[in-house]
Amino acid sequence: MKATSLCVAVVVALLGAAAEVEFDSDGATPGKWTMDLDAAKQLAEEKQLPILLDFSGSDWCGWCKIMEENVFTQPEWKTYAQENLVMVLLDFPSDKSLVPEKYVERNKALKGEYSVQGYPTFVVLDNDGITELGRLRSGRDKTPESFQAELKNLFRFRPVEIAKYTATLSPEDQAAYRELIDQLGREKAAVKLGEKAEAEAKAKVREFKTAVNNAEQEMVEFRVAHLSEAERKQYEALQVQRQEAKTKLSDWMKTKPDKNDETMAQYTAMQEEIQELDKKISQY
């Protein structure tokens, strides 16, 4: 099937430059970004190439734009990638039209599967599309050469690279090195289990906090329902005042005021007004 190209123009405001990056929405080609993970996995297996997953917010994420400008749009990177990588974009843009509908839920599922906490997150897989070799981060000083060096460091643990290296060793050293590789695998597996348990624990804590908040709200509603008409009107008036105060603060923050003594005093005053209203409301 002929690949359908989705060309995304990314304005790198932080750098004052514009970078245009091409993505295939279907199909996969070595060295070219694609959104089609299935095609990428098939190609990686055929060509015995590792896979680079880029969890990105292409049209809003500052660090993503920096990496595109400094690394992924550079000729040196394109030349390297054509021979060494299959690259997959898993995008979470503000402009929802940038991602075909068929990939939206899949991307969300992969974000959860890989426990992605921020953007960009670069996950490197072996050619089987399953084995995770490691993860890389963005950086203002990253270059095509430095990012390639980080990838090559991860590639050392690919079975194909291990086989090449151990072939140069004596039988005794081969056994010793493979034991080190096995130990590394066990430690990585332990980390994975720990991360999974941590994520599950955090999710459970969020559930408990939600339950606490719901119970507190039900108690407030019960108490309000038993107020006199005059007290209830006072309570409702305070609620309106608090919402107006919060909206005022939110609208003010959207103006991105300069940070100085005057604006800090304004911010403090608005926060104190909200806190005072919260205090009055809590008395009900």
From TrEMBL:
Residues 198-280 form a coiled coil. InterPro entries: AGR/TXD, Thioredoxin-like_sf, Thioredoxin_domain. SUPFAM superfamilies: Thioredoxin-like (SSF52833). Residues 12-156 form the Thioredoxin domain. Pfam families: Thioredoxin_7. The keyword Coiled coil applies. Keywords: Coiled coil, Signal. It comes from the Bacteria. Residues 1-19 form the signal peptide. This is Disulfide bond reductase DsbH. It comes from Pontiella sulfatireligans. The gene is dsbH_1.
